[in-house]
Structure formats: C-alpha cells, structure tokens
Amino acid sequence: MASCPPLESPAAQHISSGDWEVGNISCAFPAVASLTESRDRHEFPFKRGKLVIEVPRGEFTSWLEALGAGLVELLNLSDNWDSNGARAIDERCVQSLLELLFEVAYPNTPPPAIVPTVFGGVQAEWHQKGLDVEIEVNSPNRFAVYCKDHKKNKVWEYDAAKDFKPLARVLERLAD
User: Fold this and answer.
1) Total count of domains within the chain
2) Residue 2 covered by a domain
3) pLDDT digit of tens for each residue in the chain (176 aa)?
4) How much is the pTM?
5) Is 121 among the domain residues?
6) Does residue 3 lie within any of the structural domains?
7) Residue 51 is part of which domain span?
8) Are strands 154-159 and 39-46 parallel, antiparallel or unpaired?
C-alpha cells in the first residue's frame, strides 16, 4: 500500500508518514504515549481496509464505538454515493478529523454526528446545549469550523488548521 503524504496539522506533529497507509487508518492517542500505559484498541473494518483507534484505557469509551461505526459507514461509500457525483470519502480526511477530535475533545464530550461531504470529506456535528458546532474536513490539512451559540445569539466561522483553542473551548462547554 502507498503511504499518504505527511500531514502538516499541529495534531499530527508526532506521527510520521509511515504511520498512515491508504486503506488502513491506524492511530494512537495521545500521539506520544507511555510504553507502560494501558490502552484500549478498537478496530473497525471497511471495504478498503481497517480503521484502528487506540486510546488510553477508559478514555473516550462513551462515544468511541459510535464514532468508529459512523466513520466506517462513510468510508464504505463509493464515488457518486449521492447520485450527483459526490466523491468517495478520503481516508486522509478521516485521519485528520480523528486527530483533531482527540486533540480538542474531552472524554466526556458528547459523541458527534458524522456526515459525509460531497467533496470526499467528513463533518462532525453537535446540536445540543444551545450550540450548533460543525467541523468540516474536505482536505487533510483544512478544518472549517462553524459555531452558533443560540443563547448569546452569536455565530462564528474560522479555519482551525492553526488554532484549535476556540474549538476546544466550545467543546468544553458541550462536555459540562
């Protein structure tokens, strides 16, 4: 299998290009982990390979299975899945979304809804606690974030490729 080009996102700074191969998506979070740390390994097969996620034991357990199952559903979509020319999901976009989520989400953050984009990307969404939060990944190094705070009647959008802090603060509110 061919290796994907290395990612440039801050979340991927400790992962080498050899850790990722097209068809197999494998990741361990946090990226730098103790060799003695106990970890949970979750495997999700899909048509073109297998999604493997490792996390510290007991962390993210409330939503990891749902997240993995949702991502596999999307990874099984073929080109033209919407009958209007939509592209199949790019494994590198799934990889980037996972890296971002484990960088900014809290173990008690509610699980996001996962939806495909017609450009071969993925989107994670939360619509609860008076907040609408959407993270769209249409290329491996770009994260478009949309947030609407219904209580404060505020809307903001930004490219989160370089600064994850505003997104982390919003996800913290969802985790409370």
Assistant:
1) 1
2) no
3) 333 333 333 333 333 333 444 455 555 544 444 455 677 788 888 898 888 888 777 776 677 888 889 999 999 999 999 999 999 999 999 999 998 988 888 888 888 999 999 999 999 999 999 999 999 999 988 889 999 999 999 999 988 877 888 999 999 999 88
4) 0.77
5) yes
6) no
7) 10-175
8) unpaired
